[in-house]
């Protein structure tokens, strides 16, 4: 389902993000921090990649600019 190469690139990017968060916890997204406390880093990276891919798909299909959720 979908483009394997694109999925792989998203997972690699999120793996990099997990490593960055591990080294600099002050820059972390609260969702990712909570996830990393409960799950292994690789699983968290794949979960974040899935979330990112869904956001990308929604932005592209609606043809709207990305508006991040703010608290």
Give a topology summary.
Blueprint: H1 4-23, H2 30-38, H3 41-62
* Poorly predicted runs: none
How would a textbook summarize the main sheet?
none
Rg estimate, integer Å: 13 Å
Which percent range describes the beta-strand content?
under 5%
Distance between the termini: 33 Å
Give the helix/strand class.
mainly alpha
The H/E string reads HHH
Question: How is this structure best described in words?
Answer:
The structure is a single chain. The protein is mainly α and 71 residues long. The protein is 72% helix and 0% strand. The protein has helices spanning 4-23, 30-38, 41-62. Helix 1 (4-23) packs across helix 3.
Offer a few descriptive terms.
mainly alpha, 71 residues
Summarize the entry for a quick read.
By secondary structure, the protein is mainly alpha-helical. It is 72% helix and 0% strand.
């Amino acid at each position: 389902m979908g483009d394997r190469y694109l999925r792989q690139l998203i997972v690699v990017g999120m793996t990099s993000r997990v490593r960055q968060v591990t080294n600099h916890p002050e820059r972390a997204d609260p969702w990712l921090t909570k996830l990393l406390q409960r799950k292994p880093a690789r699983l968290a990276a794949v979960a974040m990649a899935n979330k990112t891919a869904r956001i990308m798909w929604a932005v592209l299909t609606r043809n709207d600019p990305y508006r991040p959720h703010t608290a």
